[in-house]
Write a structure and sequence with these properties.
By secondary structure, the protein is mainly alpha-helical. It contains two helices and no strands. The protein has a domain of 32 residues.
Length: 70
Amino acid sequence: MQPAVIFGLGPLELIIIIAVIVVLFLPALLPKLAKRLGESMVTLKDMANKSIDESDEKSDDPKDSPKPKE
């Protein structure tokens, strides 16, 4: 199966063209985009760590463990 081709250009060529357009025509937006990307990564990392911490707390909870039969 061949990759999708738009106007005879492959995905790598399209990415390069888009990158050149962004660098040439949107230099004022690059710092804002980089800041937002960094904030998004920090938020995603915090959410992942919080999810892991919550799952660890649930496993340590004695209510969740099976009760021994007498």
